[in-house]
Amino acid sequence: MAKAITPRHVDYAEWYNDLVIRSGLADYSAVRGCMIIKPLGYALWENMRAVLDRMFKETGHVNAYFPLFIPKSFLSREAQHVEGFAKECAVVTHHRLKLADDGSGVVVDPDAKLEEELIVRPTSETIIWHTYREWIQSYRDLPLLINQWANVVRWELRTRPFLRTAEFLWQEGHTAHATRQEAIAEAERMLDVYARFAEEYMAMPVVRGIKTPSERFAGAEETYCIEALMQDGKALQAGTSHFLGQNFAKAFDVTFLDQNNQRQYVWATSWGVSTRLIGALVMTHSDDDGLVLPPRLAPLQVVIITIPTVEEPQMTVARQIADALGRQGISVEIDTDDTKRAGFKFAEYELRGVPVRIAIGKRDVEHGTVEIARRDTKEKVTIPSESAPDYVRALLEEIQRSLLDRAKRFVADNTHYVDTFEDFERILEERGGFVMAHWDGTAQTEALIKERTKATIRCIPLNAEPEEGRCIVTGKPSHRRVLFARAY
Amino acid sequence: MAKAITPRHVDYAEWYNDLVIRSGLADYSAVRGCMIIKPLGYALWENMRAVLDRMFKETGHVNAYFPLFIPKSFLSREAQHVEGFAKECAVVTHHRLKLADDGSGVVVDPDAKLEEELIVRPTSETIIWHTYREWIQSYRDLPLLINQWANVVRWELRTRPFLRTAEFLWQEGHTAHATRQEAIAEAERMLDVYARFAEEYMAMPVVRGIKTPSERFAGAEETYCIEALMQDGKALQAGTSHFLGQNFAKAFDVTFLDQNNQRQYVWATSWGVSTRLIGALVMTHSDDDGLVLPPRLAPLQVVIITIPTVEEPQMTVARQIADALGRQGISVEIDTDDTKRAGFKFAEYELRGVPVRIAIGKRDVEHGTVEIARRDTKEKVTIPSESAPDYVRALLEEIQRSLLDRAKRFVADNTHYVDTFEDFERILEERGGFVMAHWDGTAQTEALIKERTKATIRCIPLNAEPEEGRCIVTGKPSHRRVLFARAY
Fold first, then answer.
1. Is residue A205 within 8 Å of A174, Cβ to Cβ?
2. Which residues in chain B touch residue A37, judged by CB atoms under 8 angstroms apart?
3. Domains delineated in chain A
4. How far is CA A456 from CA A155, A231, A488, in A?
5. DSSP state of B7
6. Cβ-count burial of A164 within 10 angstroms (0-12 exposed, 13-18 middle, 19+ buried)?
7. Could you tell me if B370 and B387 are in contact, meaning their C-beta atoms sit under 8 angstroms apart?
8. Rounded to a whole number, what is the distance in Å from the CA of A154 to chain B's nearest CA?
């Protein structure tokens, strides 16, 4: 067996890296900053994608696919956008290799230089809005509600699997609207979809808010976000939805004739979540023994293991229960590997985060019972085997609920309201977590706090109650608390 | 309205291009050789992908995801492979842009040159086999049955939407086996999956065969393929499955300890189909009025149009029928656009290939009838509205069958057995189609035929009966006919 997982209290970052690799979610690759998503990680992403895709379609969106490459000049059309992305672009400059003259391999063919360099998309606003210019002529063509599932590349210097990688998988919605109001409503609606997905499927509570100008997406007028709190007290931005105003419409000259036959610029949104959500899921629920996956997203929900080995009559009972669970739409597998001991298997399935394990021994069959263990709390019960299917179905729901409840309690316990900069620093050092504090609304103060504490304003919560107070740094008046944290 | 579709008899290539654009399958992009897959085309791909993915999973495969980029040096590890792909690689040389000194936009930052250039994957054998070296140690790790859904890039000079594009979407299976026999069986099994998919879902008959050495995949020991015949008499390679021998295992040093504790090289396969299948689908069934889509893959199976406009009581009947169809799992939409005439709508849905159209007029409601039109034959019937749901369900099956039957007849009518080179040339000029002829088995004769007629050996059919004959060029003995055609 490979090296054990570093316990969380020893080194949280090491625990994360160990777990991601050992559980089979991902692997490092030969390409700097690019990960390999292994079958377990990809199955999780497929489940996430299926739910999100359904939610997008239910809200009227359709999928399409735009080119991987973006002409370099497109990037500079929108001034903020180019500032935000130019520094982390993979640039394609040639379209051919040739055999080296000395036979030592291949070299770039200097005769195959592109007239204009292409960048590998870091996000697709530019190529899409260039296209929308052709697709949008009249108010009848609006709204245009398109989503894309794709890979994107942002050249990062320090990378970690799922959390920050040069290439990642994501979806990016790009919508076009006739009015400002409708575009804002769309951006808010998709934030709501993300929040519901996080809470109802990932069992991960999130704070919905808006970013300060300095944390906005490059090219947005407003960036909405959902922020989650990881077990180590650091925040993680789990999804963003942008109101882009008319910035991209103006940059790419996208106009429409309104109902009064007046030509107007189109209003835009974009919104995305990525494989980063897998990292968020890991750091919300998992423990020192391995992954803990919410049943609604787990690739395998139930595993059945016969003890001491793969033999009758245990296998007959296993098959009966598996059939009954399968008929209820529960994903279930019987482990039929007869080369490994049950204890080893228990640990493996715990590592891989299977929510429910059913163990069936010879003695169990004699007594007509099975042992059911839940992954989240490690609790075990022994129940009559004929009631196992119903029990397991209810247990999966209970685990889903319980994970969310536990995560909510964690957020509540780790959200601190502070009124002085001294307390602010102390809380961040001693406990981490979300820190709700008053801020004077200036980028200067925001930068100073970041410099001195490494904490950033994660968002101005949408549900924040108005409250009069004074900025923890400048003492200037403030009308609501904002959410600070150190973040991934 | 945009320009009409060029009729097939005038210019088949123009018809294809017009149809792909006008029907909303795809659009040209600002990036040379890259297409935009529009919502209709993408929905078709999603349906294809869903079926294929289920078939892959049923045959024991799991999905994973490997990096988009491949270190340049990986390509040269396998001698054939580098020959095949070096000339069409998009090469990433830099990882940053910077603002031009004159403020005119962005330029490549010369300080951000990569130490080793990366190529955008044209196919993933190299990066995957580099990884398999870590994943495979013992016979217990085999077989390894992995598939990837991804985008790939091959820099093509002449491109056409779906048929040949610089970037395309595809799946690539990469499997590793302990024995030669098992790997060959896998390659053949996946060819069989492709053939079943083509016939049962695309309603497209295919010939299964093996490629001659000169048409093999770069790095394969044997390439299996399915070949389809398009309406214009040209062949289209619709899918390939490769037995790679131990070539990639040797290039990347992937070995395993067998049951006798002997170290052996691993045996490999790879297999893929791409968005090219959408082009094949178009050129198998569609007509001068638009797309004809097989019901099993059509994104929308049934459209209901009320006449003369969106009004009662027609809408009530429409909703009743739509509900009944929806309950049977049939995808159905009622057109509620009240700004367009019914005649215009009929033409639009014909263009988009919706298999069944139900029209409901005021008079129909009085008579308790509806009019049902099938897209493939344009036949219409008027039937009692209460029997519409059952009728439509059966009709969808009938259309699926009928499309396959018609396509099979077309292949039969356009498969020619010739015994002289004179006949061979004449048939190709006058009629096109599949030409079954004797060949002496040499690459020299194959090249000569290609040069003189532009026809290539599409495959040596797997089901070919042994037959003694003489090569149409050299007169040398031959033991079976092979399949020639001009091809896409």
1. no
2. 64-65
3. 12-65+131-285 (3.30.930.10), 302-395 (3.40.50.800), 415-485 (3.30.110.30)
4. 22, 18, 11
5. P
6. middle
7. no
8. 9
Query: What span, in angstroms and rounded, lies between the C-alpha atoms of B67 and B128?
Result: 9
How would residue B3 be classed by pLDDT, with cut points 50, 70 and 90?
low
Residues of A in contact with B99 (CB under 8 A): 82, 86
Q: What are phi and psi of A217, to 5 degrees?
A: -60, 140
CA distance A273 to A488: 15
Name the DSSP class of A459. Answer: E
Give per-residue pLDDT as tens, A69-81. Answer: 999 999 989 888 8
The band of A4, judged by pLDDT with boundaries at 50, 70 and 90, is confident
Sheet with A415-417, edge to edge strand ranges: A62-63, A144-153, A167-177, A267-274, A235-245, A222-229, A207-210, A456-461, A481-485, A434-438, A415-417
What value does the mean pLDDT take over residues A350-368? Answer: 97
> Both tokens of residue A4?
């054990």
Six-digit token pair at B246?
């131990």
What kind and span of H or E run contains A386? none
Interface size, chain A vs chain B, as Cβ–Cβ contacts under 8 Å: 199
Tokens of B434: 């599949």
| Cβ contacts of A82 within 8 Å, gap of 6 or more | A75, A76, A218, B97, B99, B106
**Residue type for B22, please?**
R
Run of H or E including B98: strand B97-99
Q: Which amino acid is at B152?
A: V
- Unique residue bearing structure tokens 């977590």: A433
Q: Which amino acid is at B473?
A: V
For A157, the token pair is 């210097």
Q: Could you give the CA distance from residue B18 to residue B9 in angstroms, rounded to a whole number?
A: 14
What's the whole-number mean pLDDT along residues B42-63? 98
Q: What ipTM was predicted for this assembly?
A: 0.97
End-to-end C-alpha distance for chain A, whole angstroms: 30
Q: Which residue of A has its CA nearest to B40?
A: A64
Report angle CA A138, A139, A141 to the nearest 5 degrees: 70
- A86: closest CA among A126, A57, A53, A113? A126
How buried is residue B380: exposed, middle or buried, by Cβ count under 10 Å (0-12/13-18/19+)? exposed
CA dist., res. B83 & res. A295, Å (int): 48
Report how far Cα A63 is from the mean position of its chain's Cα atoms: 19
**Residue B413, class by beta-carbon neighbours within 10 Å (0-12 exposed, 13-18 middle, 19+ buried)?**
exposed
- Comparing CA positions, the residue from A78, A88, A85 lying closest to residue A221 is A78
Radius of gyration for chain A, computed over Cα atoms and rounded to the nearest angstrom: 26
| Res B276 pLDDT > 60 | yes
Six-digit token string for B316? 């009530």
Q: What is the tally of helices (H) and strands (E) in chain A?
A: 14, 27
CB-based contacts of B378, cutoff 8 Å, min separation 6: none
Tens digits of per-residue pLDDT, A19-46? 999 999 999 999 989 999 999 999 999 9
Which tokens is B258 given? Answer: 């067998």
Which of A22, A27, A31, A127 to probe the B interface (max B CBs under 10 A)? A31
CB B127, CB B67: distance < 8 Å: yes
Are B74 and B130 in contact by the 8 Å Cβ rule? The answer is: yes
One-letter amino acid of B148: Q
Sign of the CA dihedral B53, B59, B63, B67?
negative
Q: How far is A438 from chain B (nearest CA, A)?
A: 37
Place of tokens 């069944």: B356
Dmax of chain B from CA atoms? 82
How many Cα atoms within 13 Å fall on the side-chain side of residue A361? 11
Instruction: For residues A257 and B35, give the distance between their C-alpha atoms in angstroms, rounded to a whole number.
Output: 27
Q: How far is CA A272 from CA A126, A415, A461, B115, B471, in A?
A: 15, 26, 19, 32, 60
- Contact flag A95-B94 (C-beta cutoff 8 Å): no
